[in-house]
Amino acid sequence: MIKILIVGYGNVGRGVQMAIERNADMELIGIASRTPERVKKSVGEAVKVYDIKEIANWYKDVPADVAILCGGSKSDLAQQTPVINQYYPTIDSFDNHSQLPEYFHLVDEVAQKAGKVSVISLGWDPGIFSLERVLANAYLPGSRAYGFYGLGPKGGLSMGHSDALRTIKGVKDARQYTHAITEAIDEVRAGKNPEFSAGDMHSRECFVVLEDGADAEKITAEIKSMPGYFAPYKTTVNFVTQEELDEKFKGFPHDGCVVAAGTTGSANNSALIEYHCTWGSNPEATAQVLTAYARAVKKLTAEGRKGAFTILDIPASYVSPLTREELLAKMM
Amino acid sequence: MIKILIVGYGNVGRGVQMAIERNADMELIGIASRTPERVKKSVGEAVKVYDIKEIANWYKDVPADVAILCGGSKSDLAQQTPVINQYYPTIDSFDNHSQLPEYFHLVDEVAQKAGKVSVISLGWDPGIFSLERVLANAYLPGSRAYGFYGLGPKGGLSMGHSDALRTIKGVKDARQYTHAITEAIDEVRAGKNPEFSAGDMHSRECFVVLEDGADAEKITAEIKSMPGYFAPYKTTVNFVTQEELDEKFKGFPHDGCVVAAGTTGSANNSALIEYHCTWGSNPEATAQVLTAYARAVKKLTAEGRKGAFTILDIPASYVSPLTREELLAKMM
Fold first, then answer.
1. Are B155 and B177 in contact (CB under 8 A)?
2. Residue A117 to residue A279: CA distance in whole angstroms
3. How many angstroms separate the CA atoms of B85 and B69, rounded?
4. Which residues contact A239 (CB under 8 A, 6 or more apart)?
5. Contacts of A325 in chain B (CB under 8 A)
6. Measured between alpha carbons, how far is B158 from B36 in angstroms, rounded to an integer?
């Protein structure tokens, strides 16, 4: 059995707990949290809950094969992973693309010193979409791999952009749906390998609940001009009641695809690769990906490996519950 | 530079030659063939051509990093790989799924003894579709991953089934198009993880040129009752002239997808993964995949690894032309 410690008990942490139950070769050894009393109320007596600040005092009694870091805020991970990796092999979902190289080297140094494995930046994107980008580019040299999000009519819920809306004064609650621009996907499929700005690929749709007396027009202007999050995109702002928001826009649905189009041979025959994910719950799907890689961490550790790894460094056979013989007979 | 020896100069061998030209870090060191005179006529003076039967006499003068085996008939590989792997690390596309475990162990023994790497059963399926099946099953425990071929209106050309048609007495030429059954894909997408027989998933469409005086009705009956190839499927047989066949059914187009549907969490939120490939030329696309893994063979060899490998054993970073720093900065 692979013994897993969950660190952080938000949507992803709860998703990892449920994912462990779906994998017959895994067991939950405990949950570590900054607010253990809150977590205890939620999980009851069946699961052991630890105070993460006290890790030095209890880690010897909690022989986890891997700690899966599900920090509520992704910015926590830059602090958490280096600490927890002193005690356990770790998996995290650090998702700041621009800081990723720096983060890799920071964690690698810590993990090398600690003699432990640390898989960073796992999940959907970065994560399985990164893997598909690299493979598609290798199979179709000269092509680019593009990521699109929110393919269906409702689009996909972006937690980061929803959080950004909620920071605005006068906004009581909000949810943001990302929409892929269909014409842009078609251009990629046609093999044009176009140069896109961010706004060419996606638009953003906001559903906002105002606080009493807030100025809708002013808030709309503030949203549309928010750098990075909304300014580069065609953004629409809809005002709704809290009841509408809770009823029509619940859950965490998301979908997306990696698309790469190139050619083969000297006659330039077309070649197209598309990888699509459609999640009823983005945090639960992310959690299932994180959990699958617990197998890889245990195998890498058993081999005496150490240091930082990304999804690009891990063979598929390390992630599968099947034996080599089963893989050869059933899955090849 | 990665020095590549092509063994076998049919459609896939020519595809590998063109793929090498698309990869700046690779060069063609020569072509080995059972019919070197035929190949020399085709490639001219620019490429060195060797007689594969004489390999013991010339291998020392041909320092290839990897030999990519492109045997015209897939059944050749069971004989060829163990011989050539004595001299070079190899890549092959052995595609008999039922004999694959036995083949792996045969090659592994040879490769271990020779101290060389041998990547077997690479290409589209087995190959990149095998990889996607294993990953989807790991991310969505309890789901099955299904493969469908011939998604577009024209379907996809099956070389194996076309060859089978041509073995029938009275058939002058023929091509077979595979069609996925749309309703079956929809059942999988709906998360039903259905039990399918082969005929539930695909139908087969034959375009046949008769020899003078051949009996169309008798040949139709013979095709439809051919075990394995056509008997399990809804099969339609169309008779055409050679001119029609050459004009309307040229090239080697094919497409297909891996589909896996499952759920996440305790509320069973839906989760769907689809991987699609659309090839203008199936043998050229297969060749580009084989060629990309030449990088992995060189890296594994440099690490002192030996024995048989499948695509499931090889991390994506080994297949990419990018450095670790480039991968972290651009592709994660």
1. yes
2. 29
3. 10
4. A207, A208, A209, A210, A216
5. 101
6. 28
Backbone φ, ψ for residue B311 (5° rounding): -60, -25
Higher pLDDT, A278 or B76: A278
Interaxial angle between packed helices A11-22 and A282-302, expressed in degrees from 0 to 180 and rounded to the nearest 10: 60
Q: Cβ of B264 under 8 Å from any chain A Cβ?
A: yes
Please tell me what DSSP assigns to residue B213. T
> Which tokens belong to A283?
């945090």
A with B: how many residue pairs have Cβ under 8 Å apart? 220
Task: Give the pTM.
Answer: 0.95
Fold of A2-122+293-330: Rossmann fold (3.40.50)
> What ranges in chain A are assigned the alpha helix state H?
11-22, 36-43, 55-58, 77-84, 100-114, 129-139, 159-166, 182-189, 198-201, 216-224, 242-248, 282-302, 324-326
The mean of the pLDDT values for chain B is 95
Asked if domains A2-122+293-330 and A128-281 share a fold, the reply is: no
CB burial readout B234-250, b (16+ within 10 A) else e: ebebebbeeeebeeebe
pLDDT in tens, B229-278: 999 999 999 999 999 999 999 899 999 999 999 999 987 899 999 999 99
Look at residue B75 in the predicted model and tell me its pLDDT. Answer: 66
Distance in angstroms (rounded) separating the CA atoms of residues A287 and A299? 20
**pLDDT of A167 strictly over 60:** yes
Q: How far, in Å, CA of B103 to CA of B75, rounded?
A: 11
B145: β partners: B260
Q: What is the reported pLDDT for B97?
A: 85
**Residue carrying the six token digits 């993990």:** A111
Q: Please report the pLDDT score of residue B79 as a whole number.
A: 87
Instruction: Please compute the mean of the pLDDT values over residues B1-18 and round it to a whole number.
Output: 96
Q: What is the DSSP string of A80-92?
A: HHHHHTTTS-EE-
Q: Which long-range contacts (CB under 8 A, 24 or more apart) does A327-331 make?
A: A327/B134, A327/B310, A327/B312, A328/B100, A328/B101, A328/B104, A328/B310, A329/B100, A329/B101, A331/B130, A331/B133, A331/B134, A331/B137, A331/B312
Among A264, A273, A278, A281, pick the best mutation site for testing chain B contact (most B Cβ within 10 A). A264
Cα Rg, chain B, nearest whole Å: 22
Q: Any idea which residue has 């253990």 for tokens?
A: A36
HSE of B96 in the Cβ direction (CA atoms, 13 Å)? 13
- The answer to whether residue A278 neighbours chain B at the CB level (below 8 Å) is yes
First-last CA distance in chain A: 25
Contacts 24+ apart (CB under 8 A), A324-330: A325/B101, A327/B134, A327/B310, A327/B312, A328/B100, A328/B101, A328/B104, A328/B310, A329/B100, A329/B101
Fold for the domain defined by A128-281:
Dihydrodipicolinate Reductase; domain 2 (3.30.360)
Of B22, B130, B266, the CB nearest to A142: B22
Partners of residue A134 in chain B, C-beta under 8 Å? 316-317, 319-320, 322, 327, 331
Strands A254-264 and A145-149: antiparallel
For residue B123, the chain A residues in CB contact (below 8 A) are: none
* Rg over CA atoms, chain A: 22
Sign, CA dihedral B34-B38-B42-B47, equals positive
d(CA B291, CA B127): 13
Encoded tokens for A15: 């998703």
Domain definitions of chain B by residue range: 2-122+293-330, 128-281
Contact predicate A138/B320, CB 8 Å: yes
The answer to whether the beta carbons of residues A327 and B134 sit under 8 Å apart is yes
- CA-CA-CA-CA torsion sign (A84, A86, A91, A94): positive
pLDDT band at residue B74, thresholds of 50, 70 and 90?
low
